[in-house]
Design brief:
Largest sheet: 9 strands, mixed
Family: Belongs to the Cyclase 1 superfamily.
CATH class of the largest domain: Alpha Beta
Bound molecules: 2-acetamido-2-deoxy-beta-D-glucopyranose
Strand content: 15-25%
CATH topology of the largest domain: Glucose Oxidase, domain 1
GO molecular function: arylformamidase activity
Distance between the termini: 63 Å
Shape: globular
Number of helices: 12
Strand order of the largest sheet: 1-15-13-5-7-9-12-4-14
CATH superfamily of the largest domain: Putative cyclase
Pfam families: Cyclase
CATH architecture of the largest domain: 3-Layer(bba) Sandwich
Radius of gyration: 21 Å
Keywords: Signal
Protein name: Cyclase
Length: 370
């Protein structure tokens, strides 16, 4: 009897590195597949347990869930989105994989692309830090932390620890294989903040600490002829054009070369404001993922906002808290031009990230179809 209990406990502790018992088991939402928003918590009801970090959605998709916000994408979401394909015009949303060059965070190595001549054919070899160009941030990328110290890391649903990621041959939980194997497709919505600013002749600097608020994003929607209260649907992919890519492409090679090396306070980039208001606005929209043409979706440096009394970045709450991936450095230029031409801001999209078991992030291979 004792050995049975002991082996059951042992099995439980191998199954997950969570402390046992975990409050997640008590508060997790029972999911009804035919009515996934039954018992859906309001923003004010987050987190489901007071011991969970700021505005975490732990347990909202079940205690062992590894898909997070991608759960908003159901079969019907993809089926509905096929109605967005009206012209058959496909748009690549990925930058050249070596861009920006050098990477805007100098600690990150540039892309290495080598050609290997063989007998009668040739191969190529790509060595890539997945954070340097257009990227899909997976759920191993960003935990909550209070002081950036590994001892304070808290990953989505507390399913893994920092050690789980670092140990060779260890756990693969929360790796990007989950997103790759789910298959991501659906409806995308573009908000062209930069175009809205240009329409007002308002100047902005994407290489500065310019923050974009949800009040502005609602105004952008209105400018585009969309109703701010209903332009998005559950399962949508929301993309914001900040003007970063356009401004970056306009730099001389020399200016691109020195951009990452601006001293301390100047090392800033445009993005969405990290605030309680942003989180509430996004939570209510039930989005599957968010993205932008800028380095981090939120402005950089991040980690400057106090939310519920704790310093938090959007990255911490999105990835560590909601299990919501962020797609960064998207190339939205051609898509945006076509959207304005057609006066239509929704499209079919697909993302097929690399199927790397235990992976942290990946090029998204993102495509929009109008
Ligand atoms: C699940 O939702 C459907 C549709 O709202 C409802 O008919 C059914 O009773 C629910 N099932 C459970 C177990 O609550
Ligand atoms: C949804 O698609 C998955 C495969 O992607 C399939 O296993 C499942 O049965 C589908 N559900 C419905 C309700 O059709
Ligand atoms: C944008 O469109 C132009 C003109 O068709 C094309 O040359 C360019 O490759 C496109 N950009 C991307 C990133 O696909
Ligand atoms: C970070 O916070 C944790 C928990 O409060 C503490 O144990 C640790 O010493 C701190 N680390 C640093 C580098 O401040
Ligand atoms: C913006 O500037 C252009 C060219 O100077 C001018 O024609 C236009 O009226 C201005 N628009 C606004 C909203 O000020
Ligand atoms: C960048 O922002 C600072 C204040 O935050 C401002 O003083 C500076 O003029 C801005 N630079 C540009 C080029 O807009």
């Amino acid at each position: 009897m004792i050995s049975l209990i002991a082996s059951a406990l042992l099995a439980a502790s191998f199954a997950t590195s969570r402390p046992v018992p975990h409050p997640l088991a008590l508060v997790s939402r029972a999911l009804n597949d035919s009515d996934i928003y039954a018992n859906w918590p309001t923003y004010d009801q987050l987190p489901l347990h007071p011991s969970f970090p700021t505005k975490a959605a732990w347990g909202v998709w079940g205690a062992d869930d590894e898909l997070g916000a991608l759960n908003h994408i159901r079969n019907a979401t993809i089926l509905d989105a096929k109605n967005e394909i009206k012209l058959g015009r496909a748009f690549n949303l990925n930058l050249d994989l070596s861009m920006p060059n050098p990477p805007i965070v100098p600690d990150r190595r540039p892309l290495i692309h080598a050609i290997q001549p063989m007998a009668g054919y040739q191969d190529d070899i790509i060595t890539l830090n997945t954070q340097i160009s257009t990227q899909f941030d997976g759920l191993r990328h960003f935990p909550y932390s209070t002081n950036n110290s590994q001892s304070t890391y808290q990953f989505y649903n507390e399913l893994i620890t920092f050690e789980d990621i670092m140990v060779a041959g260890g756990s693969t939980t929360l790796g990007i294989q989950n997103a790759a194997q789910k298959g991501i497709a659906g409806r995308g919505i573009l908000l062209d903040w930069a175009g809205w600013m240009d329409s007002k002749n308002a100047s902005y600097d994407a290489f500065n600490d310019t923050t974009i608020s949800t009040i502005e994003l609602d105004a952008v929607a209105t400018w585009q002829g969309l109703d701010p209260d209903s332009f998005s649907k559950p399962g949508d992919f929301l993309v914001v054009r900040t003007g970063f890519t356009k401004q970056y492409r306009a730099l001389s090679l020399y200016e691109q070369e020195i951009l990452p090396f601006r001293p301390g306070e100047d090392a800033q980039f445009i993005g969405i404001e990290a605030s309680d208001a942003t989180l509430r606005w996004l939570w209510d929209k039930k989005l599957a993922l968010v993205g932008g043409d800028n380095p981090a979706f939120e402005n950089l440096p991040s980690d400057v906002s106090v939310i519920d009394g704790v310093q938090r970045s959007l990255h911490q709450v999105f990835i560590g808290g909601w299990g919501m991936s962020i797609v960064e450095f998207l190339d939205l230029e051609n898509l945006t031009e076509a959207c304005h031409e057609l006066n239509r801001y929704s499209f079919f999209f697909t993302i097929q990230n690399l199927n790397v078991i235990g992976g942290i992030a990946s090029p998204p291979n993102a495509m929009a179809i109008l």
